[in-house]
Amino acid sequence: MHCFTKATAAFKLFLMAAYTNEDKVFRINNRLCYFSNNGAHLAVAFQSNLLIKDSKTLDTRHSFVFTDIIQYMEWSPNSEYILCANIKKAIVQVYSVHHPQWKCKLTESSAGLQSVAWSPDSKCILTIADFNIQISIWNLCDQIVSYIQNVKTSAFDKLRFSPNGTKLAVIITEENKDIVEIYKTDNWKISRKLICDRLRNIDGIRWSPNDELLCIWCSSPAEPKLIVYSTIWEKHVVAFSPLEIAQSEIAYSSERKLKGIENIEWIPSGQLLAVIGFNEMIVLLNYITWTPLSQLYLDPVIRECNYLTKVYKERIDSGENPSKCIVSCNERVLREIHERPIYIEIGKKNASNNFSVAKVNLFEFSGCGQYLAMKHELYPTTLWIWDIFTDYLDYLLLENPILGMLLSLFVAIKWNPVHPQLLIFSEYTTRVYEWTRKGARMLPMSKYMSVVDAHWHPTGDKVALCSYNKAIIYEITDIS
């Protein structure tokens, strides 16, 4: 049986105070409400206005006026600057927190604007033109512009900065052949050009957390393969293929084998690499031997033998056995259920999309790296939370679909950056769900606000909960 923690009481008290204090609720544009990376400020965008607030007192420190409606906003890594953009009109403006009189305006002219981002050193801004025509690198110090041409159009992960910010890897297509170019971010010159002859094409790239390895993979079902390039040895050090592993003698013992490579993700420590297959299978690879250590199949049936798993299901509160209810909200509860088997609800495929394959569209490690939260398109109301250290699973079975699509600008799960605490958002409802090591529950929300996104403070002691046009600051005093 689960009981309320101090965090729940703190949540309730602060939320009640917030809705009676107008200073705690903000009008925003499309979820644009972010804490700075150093945690000192909170940026709020509403229509063409940009407000910079003190993150502790929420007092307004600066107010800026953008030339049009703000559609995108991003803090610089050093928290000194903040950029605002109108994607439709291809306009970007940069403001300074410590020198509010200074500002800079960038315009992409006829090339259009697809996306914009800061460089890791906060000295440059990268803009990607429509249809990936080019990447423009705007140096705010030298006031010069550099360009990267022939960026691959179809790749989802087309460019990645190394974690230390010194290198940028970009997938380039030249003469119908995919290659990877690595640039030095201090001068934006090419340092390496990787010709990956062993790959039919390149569908994604990912740096290891220690900056020493670059994973490059091909998702083709006919010849899926992952190769790992070492920046220390300056060569490819290993190749991993699901087809070769399935046929080898050292193949991990399982009735199911990994099929294809849909995506990959490093555990924050860099000691394990998660490989997602197209058959609802996730495999964890050892970064030394590059052999499978553990695996998870997203089985739609929770069987009798899975007695160690915890299943939390959203139900209407009937008033029976109230001591087993974790939190009630709008006459519904999230309750742990013990009966087996349990058949997970399978969603309907979008009839307008005849070509796409159902994929894992939410996949994120906790900051400590012990937990992995994921959702598959086939099971829109189910969230898996995998403890990779103990190989135990928690399931959240919700009434409505969990928000988040593969190519959306936001996702429906947000890990606390400091503690193993996860917030989950669902469609068509004002309910917000919280998962911690102690269990899962619904958080008390106002029925007048549907939360679709969240942005954590770097310390993990507060979070901005956002609807499409409003935001509220949710404080956490204790999650133990």
Question: What is the element layout, followed by pairings?
Answer:
Layout: H1 6-19, E1 25-27, E2 33-35, E3 41-46, E4 49-54, E5 60-65, E6 72-75, E7 81-86, E8 91-96, E9 103-107, E10 115-118, E11 124-128, E12 134-139, E13 144-149, E14 159-161, E15 167-174, E16 177-184, E17 189-194, E18 204-207, E19 213-218, E20 225-230, E21 235-240, H2 242-247, E22 263-266, E23 272-276, E24 281-286, E25 292-297, E26 301-302, E27 310-316, E28 328-329, E29 332-337, E30 342-343, E31 360-365, E32 371-376, E33 382-387, E34 392-397, E35 413-415, E36 422-425, E37 432-436, E38 439-443, E39 453-456, E40 462-466, E41 470-475
Parallel strand pairs: 27-34
Antiparallel strand pairs: 1-41, 2-3, 3-4, 4-5, 6-7, 7-8, 8-9, 10-11, 11-12, 12-13, 14-15, 15-16, 16-17, 18-19, 19-20, 20-21, 22-23, 23-24, 24-25, 26-30, 27-29, 28-29, 31-32, 32-33, 33-34, 35-36, 36-37, 37-38, 39-40, 40-41
Describe the structure.
By secondary structure, the chain is mostly beta strands. Helix content is 4%, strand content 44%. The protein contains two helices and 41 strands. The strands form ten sheets. The protein has a seven-stranded mixed sheet, with no helix packed on it. Strands 1-41-40-39 form a four-stranded antiparallel sheet. Strand 19 and strand 20 form a beta hairpin. It is globular.
